[in-house]
Amino acid sequence: MDTRVNGAPSPAPDAPGLSAADHLRDRLGLTGTKVACGSGVCGACTILVDGAPTASCLLPADHLAGRSVTTVEGLDGAHPAQRALAAHDGLQCGYCTPGFAVEASVFVDAWRAEHGDTRPGRGEIADALAGHLCRCGAYEGIFSAVAAACAGEFDTEPDQAPPRADAPAKVTGSARFSADFAPPGTWEGVIVRSTVPHARVLKVSVDPGPGGAAPPLVDLLGEDRVVRYVGQPIAAVAAPTRAAARELAGAVRVDLEPLPAVTDPEAARAPGAPVLYPTKEERAAAPTYGEAPTPAAPWNGNVRGPGVLLGF
Ligand code: FES
Ligand code: FES
């Protein structure tokens, strides 16, 4: 049986080791499918495989052979869920939006088929979208958008422009982010992360490549050489291709000395619990929630709407 992508015949994926997301983005140019976590947690890469929402970052590309695949581009921007997300401002940066739109399209269709044009409860929407994370926190708009689409309020194009000028491009997957461009000569980077919650890192190393050259390895640890959560960046590597960069990351050796850790709030409050930043100086130097130095200029809020863009 032929592989079909967005209704058209498509070459069967033939590169072993490639994910479905990589195949769609890199081979077919369908960059509306985003990869954020790359590990099945965030839902940004959701596509439909034979109509079922699927995390394409975890799916081997050859599993698409003979299947019918729909990406956000295949919804054509005409699905009520897409119109509603734009109209209800259910997005900010828009990186998670294609995944939400694809998943919501299935939920909205199924809900209306079973319940008619009625509003689901918040819990039902939350259950349907449980596999999706929006780091910008646009959840209120997403909830109200999905409810309105289920109620049949977006079966036609709304008269009013959406509050955010770039919303149509973001709900259709046509908005292009920096990760969607790869000029010739671009290298791929991979972050090596901590697999333990608390440890002192003694050494980070990688064997020399062919010819004895040291592969590019950037140490990302602070002066105290301590990791304090699973997933904390330890080092970065880069290579001309994604596969080579991943292979290099897999070859990085991290020697560490485990430190005591707690994984629940009760244990963290117990007397004698391990302290992440024991001294006043360490606490003062600890990273803040902002993840970056204080900007030099004040931030005046999110700028939105065509009037603002045109300087009115
Ligand atoms: S990128 Fe696939 S689930 Fe996050
Ligand atoms: S809109 Fe930015 S992550 Fe959801």
Automatic annotation (TrEMBL):
Q: PANTHER family annotated for this entry?
A: ALDEHYDE OXIDASE 1-RELATED, XANTHINE DEHYDROGENASE
Q: Which residues form the 2Fe-2S ferredoxin-type domain?
A: 1-75
Q: Where is this region: Disordered?
A: 1-20
* Keyword terms, alphabetized: Iron, Metal-binding, Molybdenum, Oxidoreductase
Q: Which Pfam families match?
A: Fer2, Fer2_2
Recorded protein name is Aerobic-type carbon monoxide dehydrogenase small subunit (CoxS/CutS family)
Respond yes or no to whether keyword Iron is given for this record: yes
The molecular function terms in GO held by this entry are: 2 iron, 2 sulfur cluster binding; iron ion binding; oxidoreductase activity
Q: Which organism is it from?
A: Nocardiopsis metallicus
Task: State which residue ranges cross the membrane.
Answer: none
